[in-house]
Amino acid sequence: MVSNEQRRRQLAREKFERQQQRREEARRKARRRNAVIAAALAVVLAAGVTAYATGALSGDDKKDTTDAAAPETSKAPSKGPDPCAKPAPGSPATKTWKSEPEMGIDKSAAYAMDLKTTCGTIDVKLDAANAPHTVNSFNFLAGEGYFDHTKCHRLTTAGIYVLQCGDPKGTGQGGPGYTLPDENLKDSRLKGNVYPAGTVAMANTGQPHTGGSQFFLVYQDSPLPPTYTPFGTIGAEGMKTLKKIADAGEPSGAGDGAPNATVVIDKATVAKS
């Protein structure tokens, strides 16, 4: 015969086991969620996996753990009118280089980049002091006309909020032929694994030191691990341009694809400011 004390202990043990089962199920769900997030990050940030599936680099390509937050929809939204002008005549460059250009900037000076796009100007204050290799590369590539007539090939509108540019191929797989070292990853602005609105950062393949020419412009705070070199800050005019592009959306309905707006960099310049 089971005593009251034994029965009490049995009930307590069963309650404990149920609690453990619930906790284990919660842990399994969390692991599945994290796996989805990690896979999304690898896809979005891994350049060269697929034309648009590369998140950000080598081609640089990018996107991140937030892909899981993309809205669920089986029907792509209708495409509205293109808010941007026609591109200037010309074709993207095809030249590549075997190695990073020699340092040609003054690390103590202030530099600015202007992207004259079909949707408006995107003005960027560059951080030469904390990202000298990256800024030097952009100074070199802009001088070579490398970014001229290139499409900004990727827009994310769910989970993370960025416009990705810098690939002459327009596929997420292009690059200048060399890679850059990661820089400025401990920037104080990258708090809580968030790249704040107005940040300009390098895309990469998901591996260290694999940035090339592709970069992304953050138009709304975006949760991302601090593994993408932040090297500039977008000005007020540039943020207005980005908002216009973001408001036009992308055609997939999944929050990640080519922008509906025809975003082409007609001319990119870098100069001391």
From TrEMBL:
Its EC number is 5.2.1.8. Pfam families: Pro_isomerase. GO terms for molecular function: peptidyl-prolyl cis-trans isomerase activity. Keywords: Isomerase. Residues 120-270 form the PPIase cyclophilin-type domain. Gene3D superfamilies: Cyclophilin-like. InterPro entries: Cyclophilin-like_dom_sf, Cyclophilin-type_PPIase_dom, Cyclophilin_A-like. Residues 1-27 have a biased composition (Basic and acidic residues). PROSITE patterns: CSA_PPIASE_2. The keyword Isomerase applies. PANTHER family: PEPTIDYL-PROLYL CIS-TRANS ISOMERASE B-RELATED (PTHR45625:SF3), PEPTIDYL-PROLYL CIS-TRANS ISOMERASE-RELATED (PTHR45625). PPIases accelerate the folding of proteins. It catalyzes the cis-trans isomerization of proline imidic peptide bonds in oligopeptides. This is Peptidylprolyl isomerase.
